[in-house]
Every structure is written in C-alpha cells, then in structure tokens.
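User: Predict the full complex structure for these chains.
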Amino acid sequence: MKRLYLLGVAAAIVMFAVAPFWIMGAPDIDVPNATPDVLLSYKIFFYHVPSAMVMFVSAFVCGIASAMHLFRKKPGADRLAAAAGELVVVFGLIVLVTGPLWARKAWGVWWQWDARLTSTLLMWMIFLAYLLVRRFGGPGADRLSAAMAVFGMANVPFVYVSVNIWRTIHPTTQVVPSLSPGMRGPFWFCVLAFVLLFSLLLAMRARLERLRADVEHLYLLADEE
Amino acid sequence: MPMFLKVAWLVMRKDLTVEVRSREVLYTTVFFAVACVLVFAFALVKEGRPLDDAAAGIMWISVAFAGTLALGRTFERERHSETLRALMLAPTSRPAIYVGKLLGIVLLLLVVEAVLVPLVGLLFHAPIASQPLTLASLLVFGTIGFSAVGTLFAAMLVRARSRDVMLPVLLYPITIPVIIAGVRGTAALFDPEPSVDLAQMWMALLVFFDIVFVTLSLWTFEPLMTE
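Assistant: Here is the predicted structure of the two-chain assembly.
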C-alpha cells in the first residue's frame, strides 16, 4: 500500500512538472486582435477548469460520505467526509485565485458579481463553514457538519448550471467539449494530474484521521487500565 | 397521512399558544427588525434619498437577521426543562414534528414582516402596494426557504454549547441563494418601472429552493435528532 502511495506521489510530481511545457506548446485561442497578455493569461484555463472539476467531485464525495455517516453511522465515512471537505476548500481556493488572475486580463476587473462567480464563492463558503463547525461545534459536531455537507452538495448542480441558465460573462460549460484538438491533449492531461493529486490527498488525509482515531482509542484503553 | 398533518398541526398550535401568551419572541423580534431597518436607513440614505434597490435589500436583511433571532429564542425555550427531548420521545413521526415547528416559525416571521414591510415602504418610498400579491408571494416563499434550513439547524444546535455562534455560521451561507432571489425579485417590483415577469422568474427560483430545502430537511431531520 505504501509503495502505491509513493508511486502515485512520484507520478503526480512528474505530471505537474511536465504540464507547463505541454501547455505552453498548446495552440493559442482563436480570438481576433488578442494582445499577447490575453493569449498568455488564457493558459490559466488548464489549471482553473481541472481544479474546479476536482472541487465539484470533492463536494460530492463529502456530501455522499456525510449522508452515509448520518444514515448508516459509519465512522469511516465521516473521516472520508472530513478529508473531502478540506479538499473542497483547498481546490476551491485555487479556483478562486486563478479565476480573478485571468479575469483581470480578459474582463479588465478582478471580480465581477456574476452568477457563476457568486455561486462558486458561496459553495466555497458553505464548505468553509463545514470545517468551522467540525472544528468548533463541540460534541455532536460530526453530525451537524454532515448536515451542512449534504446541503452543500445540493448546491453543486446549481453552481454548475448557473452559467447556462443566467446570462453571465463567465464562459459556459460548452467550452470544454468544443476545445480545438491541440488543446484537448494538455487539458485532459491536467485533469488527470489534478484527479491524481486529489485522490492522493484524500487517501492520505483519511488515513491520518483513521490513525488519529486509533491513537485516541488506545489512550482511552490505557486510561481504563 | 392525516396523522402526520394532525401532529404537525398540534406542534404548531402548541408553539403559537405559548407565543400568544408570552409574546416574548414576537415583541423582541419585531423590535430588533425595526432597529435593523433604522441602522440601514442611516447607512444607505444619502442627502435624504435612499440608494437604488436599497429598500429591497434592507427588507430582506432585516427579515434574515430577525429570523435568526426568532429561531434562536424559539428553540432556547424548548431547551428549558428538556421539552424538545420530550417532544422527540413522543411516539410519532419526527418529520411531522419538524413540519409543525417550521409552520410555527414561518407564521411568526410573517407577522414580523407584516410590520416590517409597511415600515420599509414608508421610510424608503418603496411602492409596496403596486403589486401586493406578487410581493406577498415572494415574502412567503422566501420565508419558507429561510425557515426550512433554520428550523433544522436550530433544532440540531439545541444540544450544542456554541449554538449562538454556530446558527448564523451554518445558516447564512446556505440561505444566501434564498436571500439573493428574494432581494432581486423584490427589487424588480420596487423599480420605477416594475417588472412582474422578472419577479416571477425569481419567485420560481424561490419555489425551487423551497422544494430542495424542505425535502432535504425532512430527509435528514430523523437521523440528526437521534441521540
């Protein structure tokens, strides 16, 4: 198992090291009169979209694991939810940082109060609240936060379709299927790299929680003796 | 099903009877909502004229703040003598108890809004009487969505030590979509050129959120309240 982890970590490092070179070699976007700045800033798409995808996946993992914990009372599901909840916040932060970096060049402003941006920020805040409750909720915090995660998961489809329903300036979800062949390769490579990173972090974080629970159990046993 | 409705009705009637006799939550909540409106009036009125769309925003923020206060107080009352536990021990379906509690909170907040909305109309020259039915429906659906999540979390937090801090932390991020839809819908009505179509689009969104929130709450209430 440990060997598998090491292999995964090595693969992730290599993938993230190779990705920038491939991305730089990808063809430019087909925008008339685009300045070199805009052409360069669009490359952030290769990090922004995969991290957003992983954020959605993570929110689903967190929500489903929380529901499992609520209804089946499985401690393992709770630990998985805790790990996934933290990863939603981490990858959400990447999305929320890379987005404005691109928007500054493409739209001229860092932030726009637009449906997609607002709903993504909202989703990120729900999971931040999830972590706050987990940490400071006191006894019973695991179930409280689980309910929070279930409601947070209900928000995901809403965030996803918000660009297609409302007229906003954020590019729609049609961008990915309509990528030019030269961009498709590096894009899906980046998606794979982010998914690998996510799986590794999730597995490690869940394992850490399990070990922590084991140690606590041992402490309790030692106290009883 | 009739049993379900009967239990919900009895729980609601119990809550309203307690409230009618003491009027504690009602008086404090109305006073707090009015104080909120006044604070915003000082912040958002410039040279005697309110900013555009300020009235709709102030109205909904006051409803949300007052709602949080009412939720906290209502369940604080249930904590004394462990009456919530007694209610949970009753041999009846838990979702019915939730629905009863929810109806009680919604009715209480609607009474608060009945005071708040004319006040906002008066102080901010908002045309509240131009589309009374649409405005009332927006308020009803918005209040249901807000209270659906609020009742669930306030009930869960009864046992938690840090409930006063945790209720807003949990409640506001989840209910922001409801507040957005409420504010935008109301702003469309308060506009110098009111757009009923736009308000109805936001109302449809509110109904959608109500369905999602009430369904999720009914689904999770049972496992959440099990000790």
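The mean pLDDT of chain B is 89.
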